[in-house]
C-alpha cells in the first residue's frame, strides 16, 4: 500500500487528508498525483469556503516515501520527471487553487510536508510539531522550484539552515520566523481550525478568490499594468453589491 491523498467535503469545507500512517504520511509518487487531481477538482467547486490540509494520525507529512527511491532516483530523466511532473504538479495545483487553503499541522512536517505547507495560505500547528528538510543526509538537494517555494515561505535564512545544516525546528521557532500563523496546544488545533472556518464562512468568496489571484500574480512578478486591466471588473458583481448594502443596512452580509 503506497498511501493516498483523499478528500471529503463537509458543509462547504474540503478536508484534504494525507493518508499514509505507517510511514508517518510520507508522500509516495501516487500520492503526489492524488494531490494534483484533488486540488484540480476542488478548484472547479465555486461553493467551497476553504480547503483544510491535514495528516492522518499524529503527523502532517514526514517527507517523501524513501522506500520508492531506488526504483527511479538514480536515472536522470526519471528523477527530473518525478520532481517536475509529479511533485511540482501536485504543489502547483495547491498554489493555483483560488480557494483559501489552510494547513493544520501536527507531529512531523519534513521535506515534502514543508513543501505542501508552504503552498498553503494559512498555517496552524500544534506545540509539538517539528519542521525541517534534512535531505542532505540522503545525498541530494532540493529541486529548484521546490526550493524557491520553501524559501519564500520560510525565509532565506531558515531555508539555508534547513538545507545546509539539516536543522529541525520547533513550531515556536517557525512561528517566530514568520512561517506559522498560530501555534496551539495539541488538543486545541481542531477547535482553532473550526473557529477560523466559522469566520471565513462569513466572508465573500469573490474577494477571497480575487485576493489569491492578485497575490499569486504579484509573487510571480506580473506587471502592474496586466493586473489593472481587469482589477475592477467585479464592480457590478452581486457579492460586491451585497457587501456594501449589508454594511449600509447594518446587517450581516449573505454571500452564499
UniProtKB/TrEMBL annotation:
Q: Which SUPFAM superfamilies match?
A: ClpP/crotonase (SSF52096)
Q: Which UniProt keywords apply?
A: Lyase
> Does the entry feature the keyword Lyase, yes or no?
yes
Give a yes or no for keyword Lyase in this entry.
yes
Membership in a protein family: Belongs to the enoyl-CoA hydratase/isomerase family.
Q: What is this protein called?
A: Enoyl-CoA hydratase/isomerase family protein
Q: Which lineage?
A: Bacteria, Pseudomonadati, Pseudomonadota, Betaproteobacteria, Burkholderiales
Amino acid at each position: 500500500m503506497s498511501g493516498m491523498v483523499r478528500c471529503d467535503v463537509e458543509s462547504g469545507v474540503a478536508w484534504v487528508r494525507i493518508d499514509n500512517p505507517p510511514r508517518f504520511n510520507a508522500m509516495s509518487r501516487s500520492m503526489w498525483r492524488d494531490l494534483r487531481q484533488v486540488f484540480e477538482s476542488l478548484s472547479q467547486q465555486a461553493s467551497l469556503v476553504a480547503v483544510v490540509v491535514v495528516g492522518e494520525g499524529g503527523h502532517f507529512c514526514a517527507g517523501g516515501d524513501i522506500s520508492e527511491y531506488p526504483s527511479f532516483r538514480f536515472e536522470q530523466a526519471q528523477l527530473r520527471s518525478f520532481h517536475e511532473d509529479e511533485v511540482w504538479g501536485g504543489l502547483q495545483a495547491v498554489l493555483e487553487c483560488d480557494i483559501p487553503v489552510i494547513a493544520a499541522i501536527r507531529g512531523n512536517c519534513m521535506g515534502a510536508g514543508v513543501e505542501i505547507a508552504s503552498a498553503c495560505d494559512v498555517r496552524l500547528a500544534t506545540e509539538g510539531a517539528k519542521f525541517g528538510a534534512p535531505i542532505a543526509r540522503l545525498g541530494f538537494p532540493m529541486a529548484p522550484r521546490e526550493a524557491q517555494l520553501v524559501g519564500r515561505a520560510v525565509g532565506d535564512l531558515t531555508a539555508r539552515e534547513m538545507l545546509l545544516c539539516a536543522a529541525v525546528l520547533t513550531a515556536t521557532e517557525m512561528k517566530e520566523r514568520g512561517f506559522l500563523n498560530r501555534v496551539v496546544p495539541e488538543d486545541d488545533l481542531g477547535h482553532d481550525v473550526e473557529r477560523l472556518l466559522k469566520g471565513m464562512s462569513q466572508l465573500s468568496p469573490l474577494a477571497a478568490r480575487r485576493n489569491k489571484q492578485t497575490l499569486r500574480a504579484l509573487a510571480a512578478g506580473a506587471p502592474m499594468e496586466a493586473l489593472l486591466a481587469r482589477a475592477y471588473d467585479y464592480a457590478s458583481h452581486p457579492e460586491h453589491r451585497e457587501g456594501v448594502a449589508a454594511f449600509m443596512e447594518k446587517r450581516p452580509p449573505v454571500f452564499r
